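note to self — DONT lose this again. spent like an hour looking for the file last time. sequence + predicted structure for the chain T wanted, 225 res
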Amino acid sequence: MVFRYNRCTMPHYIDLDTWPRRAVFEFYLPFDKPYFNVCTQLDVTKLLAHLKERKGTSIWLTYHYLALRAANDVEQFHYRLREGKVLVHEVINGGTTVILPNETFTLVYFDHSESYRKFMEGATRAVDEIKAGDWQFRPKHEDDARIHCTTLPWIAFTSFSHARRWWGREDSVPKISFGKFVQENGRTWMPFSVEVHHALMDGLHVGRYIDRMEEMLASPETYLD
């Protein structure tokens, strides 16, 4: 099930009085640790083969593009907490970590576009600015109309947990993690972690998100226009 947002729709609140999921929302909202994490492996064999024909194309930015596109295609990934209410953002953008030569890291942000070409232009420009020496650490805590990503290319992890700012409060941004590629039986697999706020979504919705990722990875030529 793909969520088709209306670009003319402004951010709005869900009517809790008519929301079928209200009871579940109110059950998880006061939890001290209201997050759950799912880890799996994604088959990136076809993606790597496709990008091999596009010399110079960043694999790293490409799988961020797919993760962000999938987030925009699943309605629940647009939900954020606001003082006990649920805000629905129109479009979800992204951000990720970038390792620096001094072995610290900084953050880079990029906007969503269904066009792979347009996304890559904007994201590549943002990364190039950092490589040029703009290493300042500027977290955008106030902007939650995005997903937060990180990459651990050194670890083929099987579980994951994120640092969070406010336990049991309104840190409701989904967290996405990518791990070290692993070769197995002629296929290439990438560890993939999804962490979300249980008051806003369930395993069903994370399953739809992962299904969407798998769908795009199975035929990358369809989506990387």
